[in-house]
Amino acid sequence: MNNLVNIENLLMGVGQPLVLIAGPCVIEEESRAFEIAAYLKEMTGDLQIPLIFKASYDKANRTSIHSFRGPGIEKGLRTLERIKQELGLRILSDVHRIQDVDTAAAVLDVIQIPAFLCRQTDLILAVARTGKPVNIKKGQFLAPWDVSNIVEKIRSVGNDRVIITERGVSFGYNNLVVDFRGIGIMRNTGCPVIFDATHSVQLPGGVGAASGGQREFAPVLAKAAVAAGVDGVFLEVHTDPDNALCDGPNSLKIDTLAPLLSKLKRIREVA
């Protein structure tokens, strides 16, 4: 069983074009979010790569209490809705609380279950019942075959619009590693599989009160994942990653993307 997931007339899955999910980790200023979204729209239009814009309105799982979380649900969703309407982009963001699900579903085209919450049954069911496409971020503490139980939870309420995202697995302390066997294993669920190249090079809690990262390796892993058969690539990008307020060390500078995406598209065509 290989299901295609329809996201506002964008088909994702086997036999379809490679999809890019990209944007800043978190909404900082509205103007910067628009700048990044507009750049991504123009670039992917030139490359003919389908785009889903991603940004978080609230990062509730930051390492430190002092870390920037974002503008919050009201202001953040207002920004995402403007980007959706004015730029004509499909929008993805993550939901951390059950009480936020319906409000977020009114704006988002894809609702993401954060990796740390991918075992939270009540949250998963609340998101599934919206009928929206659901992107599961596979927890870094899970084996690839464990995601079948999460998929079953979503399908149990009649929602078959499920996407799985690989983001690496914990490898000792403050490190992640990617087991590419997991791509094939998760494809056996019949769901489209996305590879999160930038979170896979994150060093969780690697600098004490924040996470580090090795962004230089994200392109290497992305190319390997596309060759392994993923249906899309997830990249956190920023105009100035070194000064980003969240996940800067593993985010890519936005003006470096075009050559990488061109290579990924060619690998997809061969794979």
TrEMBL record:
It is found in: Cytoplasm. One of its GO terms (biological process) is keto-3-deoxy-D-manno-octulosonic acid biosynthetic process. Its main location: cytoplasm. Pathway: Carbohydrate biosynthesis; 3-deoxy-D-manno-octulosonate biosynthesis; 3-deoxy-D-manno-octulosonate from D-ribulose 5-phosphate: step 2/3; Bacterial outer membrane biogenesis; lipopolysaccharide biosynthesis. Residues 9-265 form the DAHP synthetase I/KDSA domain. It is an enzyme of class 2 (transferase). Keywords: Cytoplasm, Lipopolysaccharide biosynthesis, Transferase. HAMAP family: KDO8P_synth (MF_00056). This is 2-dehydro-3-deoxyphosphooctonate aldolase.
